[in-house]
Amino acid sequence: QVDVTAMAQLFGYVDMTDSGFIAAILSIAFNPFFWNVVARWEHKTRALSRVCGSPHTACYCLGTVILMLNCVRSHCFTEAMKSQPKLEGLDSHWAYCSGLVILAVGTLFVISSFLALGFTGTFLGDYFGILMEAKVTSFPFSVLDNPMYWGSTAVYLGWSLM
To answer: Of 30, 39, 79, 91, most Cβ neighbours within 10 A?
Structure first.
């Protein structure tokens, strides 16, 4: 048998009927689904490259859409965090500072990943036929596999703690 009391307690702190919470969940789930479907469609058909006139222009257009969707996701996440109940133990200077440190480390990984990969390397350029000359092994890739994903996760975790 599974003891679900801890999970039930945790869900007591989450208002799943809140429209902001639902919007955040939907935007978090939609974004990677959208960009993966569009990138795979582009890889199979080259339709975006034809419409935009070149693979680079198409990649920059998709990257811009992804950035805008990420802004919407961040806004939805922030609004959901504001409207959700707070754990009393996290309403402290220690939790805020911990969140700030986690946020800073996550931001370091995200920004350094972007700088190492460039725009087209970050925003699915390989699906457009834009390949890098060699695998990136410098920081932060020398420290973590998938530093952009881990960094983004750390950003949202730090933000949540704050």
So the answer is: 39
